[in-house]
């Protein structure tokens, strides 16, 4: 049950700088026409890809990170730290530069990418989760030549048995074989983000600090060139200039021309790091770095309200106070743990609500430090 005093549903704070594109509400702005309101990029950040007019796919994942989309949000005052964060987010959007978010797990780094995509109505977030084995090549595309060879052998055997040759003789057979490569090649989240489009996609490079040392250099080349080559397709340009391939967006293939992908709208890139790591100066000077800490009370209340239909369940404010106190005393906690506690407290919301002892018990049960051993 949610009491009127606990309700957090209110209009977002309207007092934002005029130059901001992203207001930080994380809620759709129905009257925003980003195509006309987003200023053009600097001359040195234009890349020349021919945009596809197709709208981005519907965003079906942000609800898990932010809660259901609403027309009203929980007001978050623009304090100095939040204004500094939103200043840098908007600078990255204007300058078409990657945003490098550094902070402990669970403070909302990945959620920020979903807030940007939902508010600016940029469709599904393209997420590339980085591991110690990740390479830029696998983020751009995957290719399965073994399956292709197997299928070609079966097709050749069928032709020998039936005599059913494709039109055009050898040239026709070669062209048909070249176009069929698209069935075995798929653009990954990184490659899909750089497809030419009228509006930028949001690309989330998660846990960037887990990657190999060379990863930043390889990414820098992509970020500076705004595109990449697919050698497997480029070699076939003479017999099949346009080849349709699958993308990270399910059910949305695209035609790649002469094996080259070149963006027209540089994606909004959000790189997240849980720990500090030394990155090459050449990479750092092309990013906009932001250090994120545990959200303030208003931000925590807004995050909780987002997952509970815009309201604050009974006992939320007490839990948020305890959560913040734990952070002050050095406990490394995550927003997920707060949401878990709020949900369980809601299950006890009867006969006047949960007792202080029950709230304390759930906090002790769920709020283990992220650095301590299990059990």
Automatic annotation (TrEMBL):
Gene3D superfamilies: P-loop containing nucleotide triphosphate hydrolases. SUPFAM superfamilies: P-loop containing nucleoside triphosphate hydrolases. Residues 42-71 are annotated as: Disordered. Residues 52-62 have a biased composition (Basic and acidic residues). This is AAA family ATPase. It comes from Nocardiopsis coralli. Residues 95-298 form the AAA+ ATPase domain. It comes from the Bacteria.
């Amino acid at each position: 049950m949610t009491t009127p005093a606990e309700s957090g549903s209110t209009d977002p704070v309207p007092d934002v700088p005029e130059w901001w594109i992203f207001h930080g509400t994380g809620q759709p702005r129905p009257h925003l026409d980003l195509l006309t309101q987003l200023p053009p990029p600097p001359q040195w950040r234009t890349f020349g890809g021919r945009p596809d007019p197709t709208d981005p796919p519907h965003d079906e994942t942000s609800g898990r990170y932010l809660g259901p989309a609403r027309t009203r949000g929980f007001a978050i005052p623009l304090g100095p730290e939040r204004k500094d964060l939103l200043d840098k987010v908007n600078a990255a959007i204007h300058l078409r530069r990657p945003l490098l978010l550094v902070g402990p797990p669970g403070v909302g780094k990945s959620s920020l990418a979903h807030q940007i995509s939902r508010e600016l109505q940029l469709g599904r977030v393209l997420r590339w989760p980085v591991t110690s084995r990740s390479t830029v090549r696998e983020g751009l595309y995957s290719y399965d030549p073994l399956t292709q060879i197997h299928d070609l052998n079966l097709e050749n055997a069928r032709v020998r048995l039936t005599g059913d040759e494709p039109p055009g003789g050898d040239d026709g057979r070669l062209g048909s074989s070249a176009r069929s490569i698209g069935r075995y090649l798929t653009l990954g989240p990184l490659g899909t983000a750089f497809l030419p489009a009228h509006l930028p996609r949001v690309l989330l490079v998660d846990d960037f600090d887990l990657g190999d040392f060379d990863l930043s250099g390889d990414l820098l080349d992509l970020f500076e060139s705004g595109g990449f080559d697919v050698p497997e397709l480029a070699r076939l340009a003479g017999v099949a200039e346009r080849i349709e391939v699958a993308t990270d967006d399910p059910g949305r293939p695209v035609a790649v021309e002469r094996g080259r992908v070149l963006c027209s709208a540089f994606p909004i890139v959000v790189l997240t790091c849980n720990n500090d790591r030394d990155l090459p100066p050449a990479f750092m000077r092309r990013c906009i770095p932001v250090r994120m800490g545990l959200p303030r009370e208003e931000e925590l209340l807004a995050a909780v309200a987002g997952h509970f239909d815009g309201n604050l369940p009974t006992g939320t404010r007490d839990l948020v106070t305890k959560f913040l106190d734990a952070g002050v005393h050095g406990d490394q906690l995550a927003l997920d743990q707060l949401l878990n506690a709020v949900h369980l407290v809601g299950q006890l919301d009867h006969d006047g609500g949960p007792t202080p002892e029950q709230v304390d018990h759930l906090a002790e049960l769920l709020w283990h430090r992220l650095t301590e051993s299990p059990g």
